[in-house]
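Hello forum,

I keep getting stuck at the same step: I have a sequence, I want structure tokens, and every attempt I make locally crashes halfway through. Rather than fight my setup again tonight, could one of you with a working pipeline run this one for me? It's a single chain of 120 residues.
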Amino acid sequence: MRDQTTKQIADALGLAPSTVQKYARDGRIPHDVTPGNHRRFDLEEVRDLLYAPASSLSSAPLPWNGGLGTGEAVVSSPAAAAERDTRALAQLPDRDAAPERTGLEGLFAGARRVLVSTAG
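Reply #2:
Ran it on my machine without issues. Output:
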């Protein structure tokens, strides 16, 4: 019977009440909503879901994660990390190559300040 409050579940499982609320909002734990718009839980039901062995969850669909995990894959080996770094370095401009400078740009390339006087 789902009759325990968010705080009671949080205290029993050693979680923050905000974590229990988030899990309920995300559909990770079952709950009922009272007419006053409060959530009610069954401790055993929540505990079984949150602490179930991994083998029993393998066929269950994972909840939508709001876009997490859509970025670059985590590198899991030194060889893969080296390959990623090599690709990144190949895209950087060559620091040793001097850009071609002509005219006034070339004349003042090493100057820190250039004073220009209009007085004649």
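The first helix runs from residue 6 to 13. If your local run keeps crashing, start a new thread with the error log.
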